[in-house]
Amino acid sequence: MGEGGYNGGLTVEGRWGCIAAASLGVPAFMFLLLADALGDCAPGTACKKGFLTQVALPSATIAIGAGLLVYWAIKIARRKNSG
Length: 83
What we know:
83 residues; 2 helices; single chain; 71% helix
């Protein structure tokens, strides 16, 4: 394509947001998975732990939150530096 065409690729904000989401989401997932596997209920009580509510949703929330926070922070910083 010519000079004014589509350049492709991700933005800087998107790349750093994905890196932050992965670097915080994967350890959070592994820690919560380990805690869920090692956690035990008191004898004689009926407790039902679920993978989705105890591991998957909290780690997804941490990853999405970190990714968006970094994305927005870099976008704001680049906007302030450019103008």
